[in-house]
Structure formats: structure tokens, C-alpha cells
Design a protein that fits this description.
Helix content is about 30%, strand content about 20%. By secondary structure, the chain is an alpha+beta fold. The chain has a single domain, classed as Alpha-Beta Plaits (2-Layer Sandwich).
Length: about 170
């Protein structure tokens, strides 16, 4: 395992998931992308938009999600701080877990780094989420889960039919 402090000032490849289910969902995602870019996150590729039911309560507004591949020179903690500040800038407020929100930014993968603690890397639930795996596959067909050592295709095949049917590219 690489210590986070040894990554200082090096360019790292990161994957971020961005979602919104309140307000102008696509507009919120575009504003989040712009904010990240303005903070020296170099966007390399961005998936299509995908719409999914809200989880765990499908009665909440549907989410629109994307996954992006980028480069940055931040460490994981600085990136998390930036993501949280972008969420707040776009209107996210303290709310119960999984409540509807204008913007949610998750660090899916940070240079294949494995961390457990204040930040869990890769994202601990990403391998179970169609709204992460399918957009990630769109932009990175050879991605492999750093802990599970399972490629993206097999992670997608492990999803339920219901999960796969519930996601719609828009």
C-alpha cells in the first residue's frame, strides 16, 4: 500500500461519481464539473448521463449520475475536502443519509489507492451500484477493482437484472 503522503505533488488518475436528484439535475452536474475544473481537476473523460431511481427510497426524485475520469495533484483528503465544498456551493445541506440532494460527489477510485478510515478507497459500495459501474465502464472498459481484483465487466455481470434494468442512459 502506498502512503498518501508519498503521493504529494504527483499527478494521480481519479474517478469521481457525480449525482443530483433535486433542482436542475443536469445543470447541477455541469456546475460541479466546472467547479472541479476551476480547482485544477483536469477532466480526461466523462460518461453519458444516466437516470436511476433514488436509493434506498424509490419514492424520492430520480437521480441523474455521471462518472468522470480526471487527473489531479491533490491528496485524497484534499480531494474529499474539495468535493464537499463543491457540494455545499451547489446547495447541499446537512440532511439524513441518502436524502435527496442537489449534488453528491463520490471518489470512486483514487489512483488505485486502498485506504480505510476517514476515507475508504476505493468507494466501499461502488461495486454494487449500477449507476457507478455502467458509466465507469463507458469511459474505462479495462478498469479493475483495486481490492477485489475483479474487472469492470464482471462487476457489472454480478449486478441483479433489476439493477441493470433500472438504469437508463439519457
Amino acid at each position: 500500500m502506498i502512503k498518501p503522503d508519498t503521493l504529494e505533488n504527483q499527478v494521480k488518475t481519479i474517478y469521481l461519481g457525480i449525482g443530483s436528484n433535486l433542482g436542475n439535475r443536469i445543470g447541477n452536474i455541469e456546475k460541479a464539473k466546472l467547479s472541479l475544473f476551476e480547482n485544477n481537476i483536469n477532466l480526461l473523460s466523462v460518461s453519458s448521463y444516466y437516470e436511476t431511481p433514488s436509493w434506498p427510497n424509490p419514492k424520492n426524485p430520480k437521480f441523474i449520475n455521471i462518472v468522470l475520469k480526471a487527473e489531479c495533484s491533490l491528496n485524497p483528503y484534499e480531494l474529499l475536502k474539495l468535493c464537499k465544498s463543491v457540494e455545499v456551493k451547489l446547495g447541499r445541506k446537512k440532511a439524513p443519509k441518502n436524502a435527496p440532494r442537489e449534488c453528491d460527489i463520490d471518489i470512486i477510485d483514487f489512483n488505485s489507492l486502498i485506504l480505510n478510515g476517514k476515507i475508504n478507497l476505493p468507494h466501499k459500495m461502488m461495486h454494487l451500484r449500477s449507476f457507478v459501474l455502467i458509466p465507469l465502464f463507458e469511459i474505462e472498459k479495462l478498469w479493475v477493482h483495486p481490492i477485489k481484483r475483479i474487472d469492470i465487466k464482471n462487476l457489472i455481470f454480478s449486478l441483479t437484472n433489476e439493477d441493470i434494468r433500472s438504469i437508463k442512459q439519457i
